[in-house]
What we know:
The chain is mostly beta strands. It has three domains: about 20-80, no CATH class; about 85-190, Immunoglobulin-like, CATH 2.60.40; about 200-315, Immunoglobulin-like (Sandwich), CATH 2.60.40. The chain has three helices and 24 strands. Strands 3-4-9-8-5 form a five-stranded antiparallel β-sheet, with no helix packed on it. Mean pLDDT is about 75; it is low at about 1-15 and about 65-85.
Amino acid sequence: MTITILSMMSFANADMESPKKQLKNGILVEEIQCNTGLELVIRNNGTPACVKPETVEKMHQRGMLFNSIKFTDLQKEIRTVPASEKEIETVPASSMSIVNFYITDHDLNVAHGGVEVIPIQGLFEFTIDGIAIDGPKNMIETGQDTGKFYIKLKLPDTIDGRKLNQNDIVLIKYLDNSDHSGDKRVLVKSIPLTKTFANIESSGGGSRIGHEFVVRIYEPDANRDSKDEDKISLSKLEFRGEGGIRTTLANPRFDANSAYLIETGPNTSTFEVMIKIPREIDGKPVHIGDKYEIRYIDRSTPSNTDEKIILNGRIG
């Protein structure tokens, strides 16, 4: 399993890092950025590349692209669909054996008085590094009239004759035959496999100096009491910034609303804290445009190894 980062900040730049380096930094395949004049494609082996438009056509003709589809085209399709109506939402707990996720599609919610169980044949395609794998038979609605369906994807022990490893990417394609406008659409989500069940994400504020935003971590191992909210000390999350900044979120400069990440509810395994990026930390200035990392070490993983979970961001 590999580290899964739920939400990464992608930023336009005159000189973008290579797709390989962006993947290594936790950027999902469909969120990789290319330099101006280049297009993002995904090869048959599941790896992304930034190439010239004329190269895309050559790769297409030679059958070198995944299902002969340009990723930029899929991204355009995804952006035309309102997230509130059609979206794939992955559950933070991905592993070497199971990937849990949800699909929201109110068109499938026909029996409004009950919970739908929908056969998924023809609706989904699942691949690992471009190699097709079998999916489950059905998906089940999360509740009466929700239009949100749960899917549990069991992964094979091996792919193309080898065991799964931390470089593997699970690609989920949802073939929506009828969206809100009656057109056919394709939704795509990539999921790196993980050695750890812990994940970090952020939301709100855009990491702007002086603006509040939420740091959220999914950590089942910290969920020790199923009836009450648990806590994770802020000292367990390290902040690394440019100019040699090394501290933890327990530093009072972050003006956290709590000394802990507090579980969002009994037995949710999701912990949150609200912080602000300060103008200086321990006497070192913080500049707009600076990159930063928030690190968490998961010391109780299924693989019995210490795993580093990193959220990469940029000061807005």
